[in-house]
Automatic annotation (TrEMBL):
<dbReference type="InterPro" id="IPR004113">
    <property type="entry name" value="FAD-bd_oxidored_4_C"/>
</dbReference>
<keyword id="KW-0285">Flavoprotein</keyword>
<keyword id="KW-0274">FAD</keyword>
<dbReference type="InterPro" id="IPR016167">
    <property type="entry name" value="FAD-bd_PCMH_sub1"/>
</dbReference>
<dbReference type="Pfam" id="PF01565">
    <property type="entry name" value="FAD_binding_4"/>
</dbReference>
<dbReference type="Pfam" id="PF02913">
    <property type="entry name" value="FAD-oxidase_C"/>
</dbReference>
<dbReference type="InterPro" id="IPR016166">
    <property type="entry name" value="FAD-bd_PCMH"/>
</dbReference>
<feature type="domain" description="FAD-binding PCMH-type">
    <location>
        <begin position="35"/>
        <end position="216"/>
    </location>
</feature>
<dbReference type="InterPro" id="IPR016169">
    <property type="entry name" value="FAD-bd_PCMH_sub2"/>
</dbReference>
<protein>
    <submittedName>
        <fullName>Hydroxyacid dehydrogenase</fullName>
    </submittedName>
</protein>
<dbReference type="GO" id="GO:0071949">
    <property type="term" value="F:FAD binding"/>
</dbReference>
<dbReference type="InterPro" id="IPR051264">
    <property type="entry name" value="FAD-oxidored/transferase_4"/>
</dbReference>
<dbReference type="InterPro" id="IPR016171">
    <property type="entry name" value="Vanillyl_alc_oxidase_C-sub2"/>
</dbReference>
<comment type="similarity">
    <text>Belongs to the FAD-binding oxidoreductase/transferase type 4 family.</text>
</comment>
<dbReference type="InterPro" id="IPR006094">
    <property type="entry name" value="Oxid_FAD_bind_N"/>
</dbReference>
<dbReference type="GO" id="GO:0022904">
    <property type="term" value="P:respiratory electron transport chain"/>
</dbReference>
<dbReference type="InterPro" id="IPR016164">
    <property type="entry name" value="FAD-linked_Oxase-like_C"/>
</dbReference>
Amino acid sequence: MPDLLTDLRAALGDEHVLTAEANTAAYAVDWRGAYRGTPLAVLRPGSTDEVAAAVRLANDAGVAIVPQGGNTGMCGGAVPTDDGSQLVLSLGRMRRVREVDAEGGTITVEAGVVLAEVQEAAAEAGRLFPVSLGSEGSCTVGGTIATNAGGTAVLRYGMMRSQVLGLEVVLPDGRVWDGLRSLRKDNTGYDLTQLFIGAEGTLGVVTAAVLTLQPATPARATAWVALPSVAAAATLLPLLRDHAADRLTTWELVSRPALELVLAAGVTNPLDSTAEWFGLVELAGPAGADVDADLERALGDAVEKDLVLDAAIAGSPAQRAGLWALRERVSEAQESLGPTVKHDVSVPISSLDDLVARLGPALEEALPGIRPIVYGHVGDGNLHYNLSRPPSLEPEDFLVHAVELSRIVHDTTAALDGSISAEHGLGSGKAAAAAAYKSDVEVDLMRAVKAALDPAGLMNPGKVLPLQ
Ligand code: FAD
Ligand code: MLT
Ligand code: ZN
């Protein structure tokens, strides 16, 4: 493609069209090394106009584009195919916070701004940006919008979808849709903003967004609790809400095997408990709110009802950070066991216990010695039912079982009216599986949307919807 690359260099500047393998390598593989590709080139535009110019040139040449943010995704959505035919378009240079409106409760940011930077800008303005994930130091606004990311405060604030008021998007043909509005109400037809959220870069490139800001919640109370069962974790949600109402921001679950990995990585468990399940609960409110009292009352009630076996409440910011590490470091700690077959499932909260009770024996029967590392956002009915290899199996010998193991997890989830991807999206890794569990009508509608916005099929092809 010499002409296309020449035109792209003219549009973006030589140094922002990377072709040497040493320069493209970091963009060609996901953070786990689970998905690898070979890009034709990596583009690093610095403005919306440059993104539009690059997309237009690629469209004219019939070359596919793969948008990429922080490359922390779980399903290979930001990784190109390995035939050298696709361009990776990194938003990494679009890092400007365009405006913070503390009174109006909005922040306007470019797609490459890292999530933690949005949180910091909000805090500097005396506000809160509530989406929080283990990867917040690297994942971007564009990536979290494109995957509709969840995280650990969804039960109070919703997913990324709930934070977005307006978007600026470069469409697959290179036109720019300026939907950067900060309206709380706008019923003027189809909701185009929501259409691009969770589309994983298959309908266009998000270049900027208007996000909502929330009142700051400097009062925080955090506890780590030992639980008798998963059923207790589910029953605790309404109990915690009865005591704390919408001051309950976080209700997370960690299984004993997941905890052991984090402890091996150097984190300390404040509880001396033999329990098989643990939970992290956090309440947050405005300055002066007595969230400690609410938490103590809730936990006292839970202990009385045998729903909590033991609890440790953070007495300082350092202790709070220590409790959060017990939950947030599981994902990275599991990498120490070699390749992980990841699952990100959700079921109605009342079915969580059933899900866990069915999956354990079914997976053990399919592959004796398999190690389920189960944890997640129990308050959202969302578990990461991740699988590590039996110690006796080499990584390659384990991965040959991946399809069958995932089929068991997904069939069981579907039988309980659940979803096979609660918050990570589909990328290339789960696109076919998701289509298989959807009705023909639902898949047809999705294909119709894709065809309407991207008739040439050049925007992140094969992601979300499998290629036909
Ligand atoms: P990338 O990985 O670069 O891309 C993800 C997808 O978005 C790809 O399909 C890509 O093509 C598309 N995309 C990226 N930027 C754009 C853009 N500007 N326009 C259009 N499409 C774009 N996820 C959760 O939901 N909840 C969690 O709790 C959570 N915890 C995590 C913890 C760890 C330690 C890690 C490593 C990841 C975690 N994730 C979690 C997954 C991941 O961080 C999120 O999916 C995040 O939203 C990805 O953002 P990113 O910028 O890295 O996107
Ligand atoms: C998390 O919640 O820690 C991640 O979304 C889970 C994962 O790594 O599978
Ligand atoms: Zn998660």
